[in-house]
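Proteins fold reproducibly. Next comes an illustrative record:
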Amino acid sequence: MLKRAFESLNTFTSKIKSSCFGIYPHGTPTDWTFKDLVRDPKLAQRVMADRELDPEKVTDEDIHHIIDGLCQDGICHNCAEWIKQLAHRAKPIAISRLKEGPLLEEVESSSFPLKELIPAVTGWDAPAVLTRLRELAQDERPHLRQLAGEVLAGAGLDEDAGLLVRLLRDDDVRVRDSVLFGLTLYYTNRYKDREYSQAVIDALYPELRATIGKNNFMLEQPAAAMFRLDRQRAAEDLADPKLWAHDAPEGMEVVNAFGAAKMAPPLDALEARVRGFADISSGETGTYHFARSLKLLAEHDLDRAVPFLETASSHPDNSVRRVARECQCRVAGILRPYDKVFELSRDNDQASMDSHQTVIASVCGIDGEVGNGGFEQYLWNSTADQWPKHRDALKEVNADEHTAILDRVTQLFGQDGPPTDREQRHKPLAKIARKHENTLDEANSQWYGLDEKLEQLVIEYALQHPDSFRP
């Protein structure tokens, strides 16, 4: 596995070294044109690490190829980014292609490329773009109505209220769902914090409210969209105990909506819901609902959640047991240990970590690397320069099985273990990866299988030293 990675890296490096500078600042070969990248997404993925372009060296033909690249799964996001970077150069070409519609012939049954293009140009020439979107919203092809519905819902302009109502009543459930996505999760900064006018709220809110309780399983987010439009009204409308019953089809949607909106739920109804799932304590659907509902209850009234912790702690599903562990921390008045050390790291306050926080940071360091890419990644990166400290930290939290796995891996380098200098470690690592591939794979699998146990050991350690993990 690692050998193949090394070979690919060497091949890529040699190509870069043998090339001259093109329109990229760091030496992409000049014989790799935009047309080539669009035709070969795999090639594109290898040369797109540098996104800074020199606009003066990008031709109009290149811009057309970039727009074509929006149709390619491997490079569409990069092409959208390039369009933004080229700004005034790409604007007339992008707007023209969007207005005249030749892209429609290229996208066939997918709206994905237009979904990348529209956010890139919306801020430049809103009237022209919105005019085109309103045409697409009434097109006979559902995927185009879906695209238009998402973007127009994100814009939420007064003049589109009636059109959005029609889209919410569309025969195609994907079109209806796209409007909800636009209202709740629209991904451009342009509409991220938009406040909708009262006219738009009055038009759309009743449509959303009418979907609740009708088993519209494909309509994923009407409750969340209600909160997006009118938080207080949604909190009142969605407090109906019938919606919170453990067997209510829309119950999970309502729970998630209250959680995302950070609004206080109806606690009596939520506690009854949790009790219903605690009594069942089995089933895949019930498992997820139990975990999410218990977490919301603990966030708003920990005392009500405590009686359910014994059931949750011994639940057969890890997601429920994880919530129980989070509640353990809440009861003790501490943060989750990993959250505490992340908070200190984020604030560049590692130097102020006490010995207990340093232990958890070390455990987090090795667990994060191994969990992300196995021991090969851990040993390749500079994180493993601290492997003796990581071993001591694992021993400190009583992670004996993890310590034993680490010992088996480090002993592959000899009695003294791997060098604590990354550059000195790379050469023997390459040989070990070839010779002991099965041993490393087995170590990875064993480590992954102990993930929950390590999490519990870390929490137990934090509970023994609560002062180090206070908010």
The mean pLDDT is 80. Residues 238-332 form one domain.
